[in-house]
Amino acid sequence: MLRVEQAKIALGDFSLAADLVLEQGQRYAVIGPSGAGKSTLLGALCGFVPLQSGQILWQGRDISQDDPGQRPMTMLFQDNNLFPHLTVQQNVGLGLRPDLRLSGAEQAKVLDALRRVGLADHSAKRPAALSGGQQSRAALARVLVQARPLVLLDEPFAALGPALRNEMLDLVAELVAETGAALIMVTHAPEDVRRIADQVVFVAEGRAEAPQPAAALMDNPPPALRAYLG
Ligand SMILES: Nc1ncnc2c1ncn2[C@@H]1O[C@H](COP(=O)(O)OP(=O)(O)OP(=O)(O)O)[C@@H](O)[C@H]1O
User: Is the ipTM here above 0.90?
Assistant: First the structure.
């Protein structure tokens, strides 16, 4: 369980308050207007953005001061963060060892993850030789090898067409179900929320609200969410 306790996050003139609990095995969509602070919230959870006050507790332990690499989470960005000069296999291997000196067992893990996302036959290619969907799969394989209990996605598939995006969302849902990880995903698309999320964290007016069950919330949105959804 990840507990964000009375957190205040400040970035220049912008500030965001958050007080919420995220449970293992649940899938959360983070939604809200542009500029409301969704990416900032994920950045604070990951440790890229410092807290001004409050705490982040993982299984009861304060991780607010921990470096991003020490935290129990892995983050997937929209641009997938693949290195163009490395092969797909090496890009995934980076998830295990930044110096890429992988043991035999680690190599096997990388190949397993590539198989799991359907890229076993593409492991020796460079990212530029892959389609957009395949690049997303490669980035997902890197998330998978890290096997962290929390997977954070910041609008990961916004650049993909609707069919491919749905395919990727379903794959993400399968992968987190297999590993028991919690998923925390920023999205602008209500259909993504309905497809994948159990709970919704609504971010607006300087606050990240406590999670609420997704289906009920989307069927009957309160005024601020209704205004955002249009
Ligand atoms: N490094 C920074 N320094 C100062 N202000 C920043 C910085 N990064 C973001 N901000 C500001 O913080 C606010 C929240 O930005 P953030 O990217 O978290 O919003 P968002 O909800 O993810 O938006 P979008 O949906 O458009 O991606 C914005 O007003 C933004 O201008």
Answer: yes
